[in-house]
Structures are given as C-alpha cells and as structure tokens.
Design brief:
Elements (H helix, E strand, L loop, with lengths): L7 H7 L33 H6 L44 E4 L8 E6 L2 E5 L5 E5 L5 E2 L12 E4 L9 E6 L2 E4 L12 E5 L5 E5 L10 E11 L2 E12 L30 E2 L14 E7 L2 E8 L2 E7 L6 E3 L3 E2 L5 E9 L2 E10 L2 E4 L1 E2 L6 E6 L5 E8 L5 E8 L2 E13 L2 E13 L4 E2 L9
Parallel strand pairs: 22-27
Antiparallel strand pairs: 1-2, 2-3, 3-4, 5-6, 6-7, 7-8, 9-10, 10-11, 11-12, 13-17, 14-15, 15-16, 17-19, 18-19, 19-20, 20-21, 20-23, 23-24, 24-25, 25-26, 26-27, 27-28
Length: 442
C-alpha cells in the first residue's frame, strides 16, 4: 500500500507559495531584543483549510498493546510524570534600540531611534526629522516594502490598537505609508521583518501556552500607491522560547524529530446540534445531529451534503480540528465516552462515499489506559495538531511513565494507517519533549 499524501489539488487550492525576496542592503543594525509580556487570552482559530494544505509528517510511533477481553480500555492509575519546571520567558519580538541605515539615499548611514513618543532620524548631513508614533512604541529592523528608500517600521506599545507607523523618505521628508491597521497589537497576532527584509504579519492561536511552538498564518506586505497591500504566503512556525520571529517551518531545528513540538491544539468540542466551529458555512458545514433514536453526522462540502451514522449509545461530540484526508476535503473526528476512556472515530469522504474510517491493525484510537503485560496499565493520549495531523502516544512501561511510543495517523482512502516512528520522552502536562536522559527520573 502506497504511503498516503496530501493531494496536490488541495494544496494548490488552499495555500499560496512563499515569495522569495532579495536583500537590498546590509546595514549594521543594533539588535537588542526586548521581551514584552506575552498575552494569554484566546483568539479565533486559524482557518482549517490552510492547515489542511500544509499537513506534514512529523515524528512519532506506537505499538499495539492488548486490550482487555471486551476490547475496552480499563481505568488505571493516573499517569505519573515529572514535576513541570517553570517556563522561561518567551521571546515575543525583534525590537531594536536604534538603527544605522541610509534613510535619505545619499550613500551615508543615518541614525534612527525612538525619542519619547517620536521616531527620530538624525541624517548624516546634520538635519533631524521626526514622526509621531506614540509613547511606548517599538522600533523594528528596517524593511523593504517596495519603495526606493528603506521602510522604517514602528509598532505601537504592547496591547495598543493605535500608534506606531511605517514611514519612508520621500521628497526630502519622512512620509507615512498607510498600514491599514497592520500594526495594532492584539493577542494571536505578530508583526515582524524577516531575513530578506520583507515585512510580515501573522495570525496564530493565542490559546496555545506561551512555551509551545505555534503555527502562524503569514501575510507579506508591499507598498502600492502609498498603501501597504498584503499577500498571503502560507504557514510559518514560531518557537517562542528560541526565535524572535516566525520562520519557515523547515528551518526549526529538529522539528521533524521532535514529537513534543507537533503543535498540539487547544481542543474545542461541539455537542450534538452545534456546527463545527471551523466548518459552519453554507457550502462547508459539519454537524452532529439526532436521527430518530440514534445519531448521524451531516457533512457538507462544496454545497453537497452527505451523511453517515454514528453508532454509539452515548452523546458524541465533534472534536475541534479537522485533518487531511485522501481527497480534496477534510476528515473530521468524533469522540465519545466509553467507560473511563474517550474513544475516537474519524469520518471522511472516500471512494465509497462519506463514511467512518477503519483503523488499521484494530488499534484503539482515543484517550485512556490500555491493559499491558504483567497487569500494567499503559496511558494513551490522542490529539490533533495545528498542522492538521492526528497523533497518538502510548506509554512504553508503567515503570517509566514519561517514555512514550508515538504514532502519526494518515488517511488512506477508507483506512486510518499508523505511521510508527520511535520513542520519545514526553511531558503531557506541558506538551513538551524532555531530554532522553531525564526519562524515568524522579
């Protein structure tokens, strides 16, 4: 059986390619990082469609462990784990104290800094120009925004909706470029200048804890007739403990081998009768509903509705993230309580119509405890990721409670196929990977 992949049509339909830019000049920027407090309030989710298009294989593995005779995971002791250590401050920006860059184009670097509530440019010629930006503003590295001179980017004070500016030198003076609300500081939003001097903004899930990586839906900006116009450039990744700004996901060190940083979603659940939060429009809609004494899943894609029975005697719930399927449409996950565990079932459009998918090897999919050898109870955790993947992790041994075998699940038409990778030392209280040497340490 060939390995399932995300269909090219879905990728072309839902994401834009990243645009390369050339670095025009390399000034001697003074880059003292500032670390403002990071907001923890929750924002809206990133669009499911963009996430589906970028679903990527990240590390993981699980092996089958025998279930109890009735096939139901039995309740066991609560999973032990290391005591979480305090998280370091997150890096939340790339603000600089000052810049030296040729602002006016005379070939000589000029001094740029913030003074009080103004942006001040001291030209090499001896002239000083200012522009109001508001108290507490933050100066970023200069950007190439498509003007003949560098774009000077100033963010407002943390938490401020007003203030800041993007200005450039034109006709002998500092001239603003209409940023159209780009600079407002809100939870789940970041503005930065990348290594090619391109100006970006990005949206991410502010509900994800500050010490975890987040997936950022990025937009690049270019000046046209005095206004900054945005072009979506797809997904980037942000390790807020290590990186001042989001970067291309493949640039993050060891991302493909680090199952602790697989972008765990702050999970939403939608009960019977409530549409899925990301799929609730007229043409793309998913909702669980009653069908007589039973339940069914209504799935509308491109305006065409399909249904499938949900066979459970207890009220099921839709989980908050969709995952990539074999066709040009997402798969969705339904969860329901089974004893002291939560079972999960994936539904997707297939070559046989919309239906529940089979699970390869008869494995248990969900959260709970599995009965292992020697009377041990092994904890299993299943989750969806910001990158639209479905994952499971299962304890290797109750004697080493933080060592897990991890699996990434992929959809191959009518079947969920496990992609087993290897072991990892995980702390699920923080959704982080631990150093292998600490596994089993008390």
């Amino acid at each position: 059986m060939s390995a399932p992949v995300t269909p090219p049509g879905l990728e072309q339909r839902l994401t834009a390619a990243l645009h390369a830019r050339a670095d025009l000049v390399t000034p001697d920027d003074l880059t003292t990082l500032l670390v403002p407090a990071a907001p923890r309030r929750r924002s809206r989710r990133t669009a499911v469609l963009a996430g589906l298009a970028a679903a990527a294989v990240v590390a993981g593995a699980v092996v089958a462990v025998p279930l109890l005779d009735d096939g139901r995971p039995e309740r066991g002791p609560a999973p032990a784990g290391p005591t979480p250590s305090p998280s370091p401050d997150t890096v939340d920006g790339q603000a600089v104290d000052r810049l030296r860059v040729d602002v006016d184009g005379d070939g000589t670097p000029d001094d740029v800094r913030l003074v009080g509530a103004d942006l001040e440019v001291a030209l090499a010629s001896g002239t000083t120009a200012t522009w109001p930006v508001g108290a507490g503003a933050r100066l970023l590295p200069w950007a190439d925004v498509g003007t003949s001179r560098p774009g000077l980017v100033v963010l407002p004070a943390p938490g401020a909706e007003e203030g800041g500016a993007v200005v450039t030198w034109r006709d002998g003076t500092l001239t603003p470029i209409d940023a159209q609300g780009l600079l407002a500081d809100r939870p789940g939003r970041v503005v930065w200048v990348d290594e090619t001097r391109a100006l970006h903004s990005g949206e991410y899930d502010a509900g994800v804890p500050d010490d975890e990586r987040v997936l950022v839906q990025a937009t690049s900006y270019h000046q046209v007739r005095g206004e900054l116009l945005g072009t979506p450039v797809g997904e980037q990744c942000w390790d807020r403990l290590a990186e001042a700004t989001p970067v291309a996901c493949e640039q993050l060190p060891a991302m493909d081998a680090d199952p602790s940083l697989m972008f765990p979603v702050v999970e939403d659940r939608y009960p019977v009768g409530e549409p899925h939060g990301q799929l609730s429009g007229d043409f793309e809609k998913v909702v669980l509903r009653r069908a007589g004494d039973e339940f069914e899943l209504s799935y509308t894609w491109d305006g065409v509705e399909s249904t499938a029975p949900v066979r459970t005697v207890v009220a099921p719930e839709l989980l908050g993230s969709a995952i990539a399927s074999s066709l040009d449409a997402p798969a969705v996950v339904v969860g329901y309580e089974s004893g002291d565990s939560t079972r999960m079932q994936v539904y997707a459009p297939t070559s046989e119509g919309f239906r529940a998918l089979d699970v390869a090897d008869g494995r248990f999919l969900g959260d709970g405890f599995l009965a292992g050898s020697g009377g041990q109870y092994l904890h299993q955790r299943t989750w969806t990721s910001q990158r639209s993947g479905l994952w499971s992790a299962q304890q290797v041994s109750a004697d080493e409670p933080d060592r897990y075998l991890v699996t990434r699940w992929t959809v191959d038409d009518t079947t969920l196929v496990p992609d087993d990778q290897g072991e990892a030392c995980l702390d699920f209280s923080r959704n982080r990977r631990l150093p292998d040497a600490t596994c089993g340490a008390s």
